[in-house]
Amino acid sequence: MKLSATDDQKIVELLSTDARAAVALILSKYGAALQGVIFEIVRSQEVTEEVLQDTCIKIWKKATDYDASKGRLFTWLLTIARNTAIDKTRSKQFRQSKQSDHFSTS
Question: Hey, which of 32, 75, 92, 101 would disulfide with 71, CB 3.0 to 4.6 Å?
Answer without folding.
Answer: 75
